[in-house]
From TrEMBL:
Regions annotated as coiled coil: none
Keyword Thylakoid: no
Transmembrane regions: none
Co-factor(s): Zn(2+)
Xref: Pfam families: ADH_N (PF08240), ADH_zinc_N (PF00107)
Key words, A-Z: Metal-binding, Oxidoreductase, Zinc
InterPro entries from the UniProt entry: ADH-like_C, ADH-like_N, ADH_Zn_CS, ER, GroES-like_sf, NAD(P)-bd_dom_sf
Domain of life: Bacteria
Stated family: Belongs to the zinc-containing alcohol dehydrogenase family.
Name of the protein: Zinc-dependent alcohol dehydrogenase family protein
Species of the source: Actinomadura miaoliensis
Keyword Oxidoreductase recorded: yes
Length: 338
């Protein structure tokens, strides 16, 4: 089969790779229906994360079960399945507590921009849809496997409640999905931080009520202005830079919460400032598996349409163009179909 391999920063190739096989009895192999390029894939692509040797790429997927190991009974060949970027048995103490992305048997998926993918811990990781979904649902189901699940976790971690005010820092796919999540969880006011017009437009369509274009201290001042000088109840930090985290913490009211899901790159938090801010902080790799049944249902009933974050669709063999388009910000997120 063929799949994406990164050889060096800026150098992603679509090439022949070994066919994935069942190795453990808890594995499944799926035939990819759709996969995509993640904002975090751009870290090695841009050379911010080192590429020591060529390796496969991709951690988002939906597909059809091709084969299952002897211990997998929850999904069967032929079913359409959605899974998370982190595998989970869904039975260990961390899974039972709702933190499947800290499963004791966790593996991070890294081979999904390919025609076939091996899924470890398939029993706990994969969720099958009731029927084979119509093609129009595929982008949103793919979004649920990562960006929508992550945006949802950001909103849950920031404790968005009905009637509350939420700020979303970051207008990438996760931030935009965070707007959807804040709306679904009942936030009355949703302030999206974005300086890119097409993204602002999508944020407004997803439920944002206000747009703040300023970053850093000016962005904080603008949020304070919009919230009677106090700050927001909930802030979703969906970037992972020092500036974004500082903006998130300082935009939150005393007693409010920050949910942070942007993978931190050189982010430092000052203990004393955090202490006196009275702000609650929770983040980490999203336990997407916890939210999958709920989010799949919301997609299939037409309540949410996070697939709209994909503004570029390419054949999988043009995966390199997907990286280029996202790197150059010509696309928010590229969907790839074999
Ligand atoms: Zn577990």
């Amino acid at each position: 089969m063929r799949g994406a391999v990164i050889h060096a920063p800026g150098d992603v190739r679509f090439e022949e790779r070994d066919d994935p096989k069942i190795i453990e009895p808890t594995d499944a192999v799926i035939r990819t229906v759709a996969t995509c390029v993640c904002g975090s894939d751009l870290w090695p692509y841009r050379g911010i994360e080192a590429v020591d040797e060529p390796h496969p790429m991709g951690h988002e997927y939906v597909g059809i079960v091709e084969e299952v190991g002897a211990e997998v009974t929850s999904v069967t060949p032929g079913q359409f399945v959605v899974g998370s970027f982190a595998t989970s048995d869904n039975t260990c103490p961390n899974c039972r507590a709702g933190y499947q992305s800290s499963c004791l048997r966790r593996e991070f998926m890294t081979t999904c921009q390919a025609e076939y993918v091996r899924i470890p811990q398939a029993q706990g990781t994969l969720v099958a849809t009731p029927d084979r979904p119509a093609g129009e649902f595929v982008p949103s189901l793919l979004a649920v496997s990562d960006v929508m699940g992550t945006g949802w976790y950001a909103a849950v971690a920031a404790e968005v409640r009905p009637g509350s005010t939420a700020v979303v820092v970051g207008d990438g796919a996760v931030g935009l999905c965070g707007v959807i999540a804040a709306r679904e969880l009942g936030a009355e006011r949703i302030i999206a931080v974005s300086r890119h017009e097409p993204r602002q437009k999508l944020a407004l369509e997803f439920g944002a009520t206000d747009i703040v274009t300023e970053r850093g201290e000016e962005g904080v001042a603008r949020v304070k202005e919009l919230t009677g000088g106090i700050g927001a109840d909930s802030v979703l930090e969906c970037v992972g830079t020092q500036e974004a985290m500082r903006q998130a913490l300082r935009s939150t009211r005393p007693g409010g919460n920050v949910g942070f899901v942007g993978v931190p790159h050189d982010v430092r938090i000052d203990g004393e400032e955090l202490f006196f801010s009275h702000v609650g902080l929770r983040g980490g790799p999203a336990p997407v598996r916890r939210f999958l049944p709920n989010l799949i249902d919301r997609v299939l009933t037409g309540r949410i349409n996070p697939g709209r974050v994909f503004d570029l669709t390419l054949p999988l063999e043009q995966v390199a163009e997907g990286y280029r388009a996202m790197d150059e910000r010509r696309a928010i997120k590229a969907l790839l179909t074999p």
